[in-house]
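Reminder to self: tokens first, then the designed residues, so the page reads top to bottom the way the pipeline ran.
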């Protein structure tokens, strides 16, 4: 029987996988929370020049109610 040190072979791969999963999580869930929503006209016949802050706030700002500050 031969002994193989598996831990040392997979140690570099697990760190790279952990970094990839962390970056994918940030790109998918965290970064879109800070992206503001586009302004969609409610009444195209009479458009507002400046949108209300509630209509274009990002999810992070909307959840923390920071658009009123």
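Designed residues (69 positions):
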């Amino acid at each position: 029987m031969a002994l193989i040190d598996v831990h040392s072979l997979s140690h570099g791969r697990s760190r790279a996988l952990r970094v990839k999963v962390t970056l994918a999580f940030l790109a998918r869930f965290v970064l879109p929370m800070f992206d503001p929503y586009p302004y969609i006209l409610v009444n195209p016949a009479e458009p507002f020049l400046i949108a209300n802050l509630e209509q274009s706030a990002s999810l992070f700002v909307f959840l923390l109610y920071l658009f009123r500050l």
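The helical segments are 6-30, 53-56, 59-64.
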